[in-house]
Amino acid sequence: MENARLDTLKSRALGLWQAHGRETPLPGLLLAVTEAPMGPIHGVYRPSLCIVLQGAKVSQLGDRSFRYDEGKCLITSLEVPIRAEIVDASPEKPYIAAVLDIDPGCVAELLLEQARAEPAAAPEPTALNVQPLAEELIDPMERLMALAERPQDIPVLAPMIRREIVWHLLNGPHGSMLRQIGLADSRTARIGRAIAWVRENFTETLNVPDLAGLAGMSAATFHRHFKAATQMTPVQFQKKLRLQEARRLLLAEGADVSQIGFAIGYESPSQFSREYRRMFGAPPGRDGAEIRRSVVPGIPA
């Protein structure tokens, strides 16, 4: 890849950040810029394309780590809870990244228009994949960002450019992975249906055979494909979602720790506190106080 082309896209992204911040006027496009390493960051990734234009980030899914730095991109095909760190950033060379949502409906439409058949067997579902940024993605990404200067063009041209980007992804190294997002009966899509149920019902008792039925698989097959895709068992996946929600509630509501534990599905306050500390490095009461003080300096513990 030519550094000059990447530098042009980087300058465009930085200008867009300076004008609008993280939330851009372009539907589905977010920007991240930071001048110092940060993390760990706990959150949920959704189907998306993340392009690192400067600096580096590491995302951890289960026991597997994915590092992507300047000129690399991360494709996410499923909604998964992650732990991430920005590991390379400074005032002189800030971390700069652009994240574009991927619409499964758009993927499905483009699959119908692909000229060539896809006889290859479906790959094992996987939630994250890192590849070098393809040359053909730079131009449409720059054109998409440039639309911020012409708001009247966004409703008409932005969907067309996003469709072009997805087309290039489908025909590039990410293609086999991305095609699974758009195929209703692919293993990735079926695991995705189970993940959606867990996300919407994470406070409920998890019944793996029922989840397997939702995915149209036997319990053993479902467990194997779920672990391959997310690097976690269904129970571990649910636990991460519960604990991330607990942290959000501690910040947003500052409620009693035991009440939060019960609200997210724990029956034992001691088990909740133990597992929270294992994930975030501090018990929930202390961690919540630290988060609130970091967000609003001067707040009492």
UniProtKB/TrEMBL annotation:
Keyword DNA-binding: yes
Keyword terms: DNA-binding, Transcription, Transcription regulation
Protein name: AraC family transcriptional regulator N-terminal domain-containing protein
Domain of life: Bacteria
InterPro entries: Homeodomain-like_sf, HTH_AraC, HTH_AraC-typ_CS, Tscrpt_reg_HTH_AraC_N
A matching Pfam family: HTH_18
Start and end residues of each HTH araC/xylS-type domain: 192-290
Species name: Tropicimonas aquimaris
Keyword match Transcription regulation: yes
